[in-house]
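Before relying on records like the one below, remember that each one covers exactly one chain. Contacts with other chains, cofactors or solvent are not represented anywhere in the record.
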Amino acid sequence: MIQRLPKWGLFLLLGLGFLFVTLPLVHLFLSLSARELLETVRDREVWRAIRVSFEGALGATCLGLFLGAPAGYFLARHSFPGKAFIEGLFNLPIVI
């Protein structure tokens, strides 16, 4: 029998997740002066790094959409020898 997580446990996990994301951002903005922040925002290397990050995210999203979704549909609908191995290969990046 599966036990449900109590409401306070859910709120605790959500709060920890929220703090995990927001605390580094708050620390970043509080540790920089306004001048340092403006210098960072105007730096070409920073914008180049942001652009590379967005390009990588877009590429990964497109691969997942156009290759992963059909592969997942195929794996869910069909049985064949080696299916468990291929599913393991698809799950490998998530584990790593």
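The mean pLDDT is 91.
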